[in-house]
Specification:
The protein is globular, with a radius of gyration of 34 Å. The strands form 4 sheets. Strands 13, 14, 15, 16, 17, 18, 19, 20, 21 and 22 form a 10-stranded antiparallel beta sheet that branches. The protein has a 5-stranded antiparallel beta sheet with strand order 3-4-5-6-7, with no helix packed on it. The protein is an alpha+beta fold. The protein has helices at 4-9, 22-40, 49-55, 86-91, 97-106, 178-184, 189-199, 412-427, and strands at residues 64-65, 68-69, 74-79, 121-126, 133-141, 144-149, 155-160, 164-173, 213-223, 226-240, 243-251, 258-261, 281-284, 304-307, 313-315, 320-328, 332-338, 343-353, 362-363, 368-372, 382-389, 392-394.
Amino acid sequence: MRTGLQNALFVKIDKRTLFLSLGSLTGLLLCLAASIVLMTHPDLSMGSGSAALVETGLVKQPNMRYGFDLNRFEVVQGAIKRNEVLSELLSEYGISMTEVSKLNETAADVFPTNKLLAGKDYTILLDPNTHKAQYFVYEPSALFYVVYDLTGETKAYRYDRKVDIIQKQAVGTLKTSLWDAMDELKLPNLLAIKMEEALRNSSDFFRAQKGERFKLLYTEKMVEGKSVGIGQVLAAYANFGGEDAYSFWFESEDQEVQGYYDENARPMKKAFLKAPVEFTRISSRFNLNRFHPILKRVKAHLGTDYAAPQGTPILAIADGVVVEATRSGGNGIYVKIKHDAVYTSQYLHMCRHAQGIRPGVHVGQGQVIGYVGSTGLATGPHVCFRFWKNGQQVDFLQEKLPRPEPMTGPHVEAFFHVRDSLKQALDAMALPPAP
């Protein structure tokens, strides 16, 4: 009577030649290993044979990374050093300058080898017998990696990692500022910037008071269980100044409509920016009786001067069409934009126009149209901002500018559906107790 091991190994051979395929041989070997496991570990059943082999170390668990089983290679890991080049790095592992030069050519369209940055991680997979490099894996970002094939093909392949988008929430109370509140919650500053963008039309963050509270629904991007950045603020609530303010992100399926809207489908962005530049101070206001510092006489100043460092980007305050982009006399280099039948704006004393800015070009709110300079009659770098209403120059800072009109058209119903879902989620989040 045969034992289990004997049965597993018994093959009847008659006068005909018996050829065993590679698959049959592999099966016999696995069967032999399983039989040994069963004799030494009788508590294991044949039904879990492959798992049992891995568990007992007879078959090594694959260590998959970058699409390779790292068990098959000798692995070298490190980070690019300052001024280190690929040819120097790989010369230690049997790769010649000629091979690297060829790789430089074939990899140029995927990720040029001269773009490797100091501090970025790499992995070299070596042949365990010859110790020669077979693959060089470079990780320029958490979002993707590049594999350089050194086996003779000298090619490069880019692989984008799977990004998981998860929804998160945050509630907080202001003690000093929104930024400090984010720090206390161990949330990135970028989230504060995105929250300000979401609520910019309804909340004055600079006047927010201690004890005022907020809620956020946002997304975070994850790769292999690690955060790689903040995604989109989906909804925001704040009670700054005693008034409730909501903002909801909406993006239509056809991509025609996207942005933040309030509860009534009114866009959260203002029709006009508060200023055309990030300025250090207002150096001169609209004044019909101003004494001109260069001409040395009283000359009406029909604009607002915003002092800012040379080269600071100048932004279009609203959507419109460029009607002038030139240089003339005291105005220096300037741009003039017609926004609609009522409003026009002008930006003087630039050091240069932004690329592509010329008459007839459509520009969007916040688009860079030029850079702060001191051309024309200017005592220092600033932008003189002028504003017309119905053809007459007016003081922009004193104007009561219109709010954007609510959304209309076929996307309104879809917006309200999104709004209701997000508002329900926000309202379900408990605010922290008032301090």
